[in-house]
Design brief:
By secondary structure, the chain is mostly helical. The protein has 20 helices and no strands.
């Protein structure tokens, strides 16, 4: 019989010391990896648009950006669904770094298309379009695997006593990653080239994946520690079994029995998933299209045009962190009332934005400078809080609280994949923005927020089960 290289710890002090070290290390490495993955995801908004972006340089049609968005989000949606099931059955130590590395390679496909065009290997518009559609879609599919794996690690390494707050802190990696991606992309496009916008994030992703491969660990039992609920409850037994999985929480049901009861028949989970569609229409719509709006206004350089979306993403950190407090302290653990409050903030900001931004060449309400710029920044900041709060809560902690931790990645993958229907819808309507204008997109965002409120009202009284991690 092959001997496990890790010793199973019995001393409570040693267990506490190792848990403290590993929880910190796991969090930092996952945070960094997820942050770097976002550098490549959001580079398209800046690097592809504007007079010096990839679309003009490669001579592509104006609707290419919207089509790329639909392809990306459709591939991401499919991958996230499958990724949840895969993550529950795989080791994140190998799978997470591998997904970061390979997605980084394919996310550089748009820049590679540019180099191939200069080398006369891709000469027609059709061949260039097909190349970037395929590589961007593959990158999206592989990138989608990362979050369910991170969800699995958070569930196995942190107990339900502090998981909501840890999840909130971790989710800021996406907001900071989006903001840094926009700033980095604007800087590279303005001072270097559009190819650099896609190459630099790919290189950073490759280096970070190597770091994760050496440091990450799958779950506590893989290094001889008891499961986190036993550790957090101070129930470390003096008679620890020597088998790797001896201290895993026991659930007599098979995986598919848990899947049927905690996923397929879970009414609250499906309502949250539908709400997530509304959240992603708001999130993808604003982050993807607002930079394009400002770039095409002719009043901003690529770097300055990224600032509204940067502010939106950065302020999303406060949304992610604050909604846990609002839910726990103000609404006594209820998730729906807190989510509704954040939806209302977003809707109000979008209505004001609709009135003051010159969508059709002239604003409904004229606001003089410098108050106009200040008001735009305030609206973006509040919108970020109102969007990213529900984004973290609906598809994150609220969703996984509805089922066993043995299907936590599956739940995360399903809610995430359904949510990305919202991103596809947002990009689909973007195709018609040339005909109906950007004010049409803004109206879609407002309607999505209203629908999200009604969905949350249907589960207003639902509270999370504190013992859901069986």
């Amino acid at each position: 019989m092959k001997k496990n290289i890790f010793v199973h710890f019995k001393d409570k002090n040693k267990i506490k010391k190792l848990y403290t070290i590993m929880q910190t290390v796991i969090f930092i490495v996952m945070y960094l990896m997820y942050f770097v993955s976002y550098l490549g995801r959001k580079s398209l908004a800046i690097g592809f648009n504007g007079s010096t972006g990839a679309r003009v340089a490669l001579g592509l049609p104006s609707n290419t950006y919207a089509i790329l968005g639909m392809i990306y989000y459709a591939a991401y949606m499919c991958g996230k669904f499958l990724g949840g099931i895969l993550a529950d059955k795989s080791s994140i130590r190998i799978a997470l770094p591998l997904s970061i590395f390979t997605s980084s390679v394919f996310s550089a496909g748009i820049a590679i298309a540019g180099y191939l065009n200069k080398a006369s290997l891709l000469t027609s518009t059709e061949s260039i379009s097909m190349f970037i559609y395929i590589t961007w879609g593959i990158a999206a599919f592989i990138q989608s695997l990362t979050f369910p794996m991170c969800a699995k690690a958070l569930v196995y390494w942190y107990s339900n006593k502090n998981r909501a707050y840890i999840w909130a802190y971790f989710s800021t990696s996406g907001e900071i990653g989006s903001a840094c991606s926009l700033i980095l992309s604007g800087f590279l496009l303005q001072y270097y080239s559009w190819e650099a916008v896609f190459i630099v994030p790919a290189l950073l992703g490759g280096l970070t994946s190597i770091l994760g491969l050496f440091i990450l660990r799958d779950k506590p039992s893989s290094i001889g520690l008891p499961d986190v609920e036993t550790y957090a409850g101070n129930k470390v037994s003096e008679n620890v079994d020597t088998e790797v999985n001896a201290k895993e929480s026991y659930d007599p049901r098979s995986y598919w029995q848990i899947f049927m009861s905690d996923v397929i028949k879970n009414r609250v989970l499906w309502i949250l998933s539908l709400t997530y569609i509304c959240v992603y229409i708001l999130r993808a719509g604003t982050v993807d299209w607002i930079p394009k709006m400002f770039m095409e206004s002719g009043q901003f350089s690529p770097l300055l045009a990224s600032l509204p979306a940067v502010i939106l993403s950065i302020s999303g950190i406060f949304g992610s962190l604050s909604i846990s407090f609002v839910s726990e302290k103000i609404f006594k653990g209820k998730r729906s009332p807190a989510i509704i409050c954040y939806f209302l903030i977003t809707i109000l900001c979008l209505i004001i934005f609709r009135l003051i931004f010159p969508f059709g060449g002239k604003a409904v309400i004229s606001v003089p400078d410098p108050f106009y710029t200040l008001l735009i920044f305030i609206l973006m900041a509040l919108s970020g809080i109102g969007i990213y709060g529900p984004q973290m809560m609906v598809g994150g902690i609220a969703a996984i609280e509805t089922g066993s931790k043995k299907v936590s990645s599956t739940i995360s993958g399903i809610t995430g994949s359904i949510g990305y229907l919202g991103s596809i819808i947002s990009s689909f309507f973007g195709v018609f923005s040339d005909k109906w204008g950007y004010i049409f997109l803004n109206n879609i965002w407002i309607i999505s927020g209203i629908i999200g409120i009604f969905l949350m009202l249907s589960i207003w009284s639902i509270k999370p089960c504190k013992d859901y991690s069986r």
